[in-house]
Amino acid sequence: MNSIQVKQEFDAPVAQVFDLLSKHATYNIAFAPVQVVRVKDSADTERPDGLGSIRRMGFGPIKPIQEQITLLDVNKRIEYKIINNPLIKHHLGMIEFSEISPNKTLVSYTIELQARAPFVSKLILAQLKLAITLGFKKLAKSFV
Question: Could you tell me which Gene3D superfamilies the record lists for this protein (predicted)?
Fold first, then answer.
């Protein structure tokens, strides 16, 4: 299984960082110009971007990538998977939150990916690693 991991420190408490990264709209900032919209709410009215929610990603009216939140453990972990994509055999995104100190949080973002075409996985993961690294650095600056 091909995978990547990006780690980023945030100068904020875990609860504040989790709150930011558990909202689909945050990824519009992190991964601009890619646009992210929630298309299905979670059953939890307090967290519409929570467990079971679905987001679409893309540009303008074309948003072919759909991701569904499959696990949400508040202030600890978020997991999601790509759904309804015939080009992807397996995809799992995991975002883990750990406290370094009361006002410093370490976020570890891991993505496992297996595309149907074998050579494509590494190419996609390389692009994702770059985008996540840059996007998380941008978000981390918002706490300074």
Answer: 3.30.530.20
Q: What is the pLDDT of residues 102-139, one digit of tens each?
A: 999 999 999 999 999 878 999 999 999 999 999 999 99
8 Å CB contact between 95 and 108: yes
The domain ranges of the chain are 2-141
AA identity, residue 65: I
Q: What pTM does this model have?
A: 0.95
Q: Which token pair is 76?
A: 């600890």
Which class in CATH covers the domain with range 2-141?
A: alpha beta
Structure tokens, 64: 């072919």
- The token pair that represents 125 in the structure block: 């993961």
